[in-house]
Inverse folding.
């Protein structure tokens, strides 16, 4: 009798643990998807409503990520605003394959930016946004 009760308790613990772990996994995946969608929406808003500027690529490094077959890159940019002032920024984005030759160290690219308090959020005009 005690063996059956022990087996039943162990089974219940395993089921509860499995359900809890599954719930945590689903919540984490949902949160990551929502965060990714919010980031994409912010990128689109910057590209739609942002101030146009030019940027010099000071450094470019490929990241390990890809989106729809496009390589992810980290761009170290020197942005020149319309009034002539400059600022440094780093942008992580995805580049369509046909635009890769345009993205080299020293190249000038078009960007848009939005000032959010003391922070300037920058996006690359020719970047890939799904």
């Amino acid at each position: 009798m005690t063996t059956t009760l022990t087996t039943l308790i162990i089974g219940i613990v395993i089921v509860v643990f499995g359900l809890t772990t599954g719930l945590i996994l689903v919540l984490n995946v949902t949160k990551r998807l929502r965060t990714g969608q919010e980031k994409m929406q912010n990128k689109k808003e910057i590209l739609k409503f942002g101030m146009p500027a030019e940027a010099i690529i000071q450094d470019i490094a490929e990241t390990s990520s890809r989106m729809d077959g496009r390589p992810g890159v980290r761009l170290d940019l020197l942005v020149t605003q319309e009034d002539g002032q400059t600022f440094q920024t780093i942008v992580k984005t995805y580049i369509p394959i046909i635009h890769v030759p345009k993205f080299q160290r020293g190249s000038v690219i078009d960007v848009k930016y939005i000032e959010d308090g003391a922070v300037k959020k920058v996006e690359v005009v020719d970047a890939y946004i799904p």
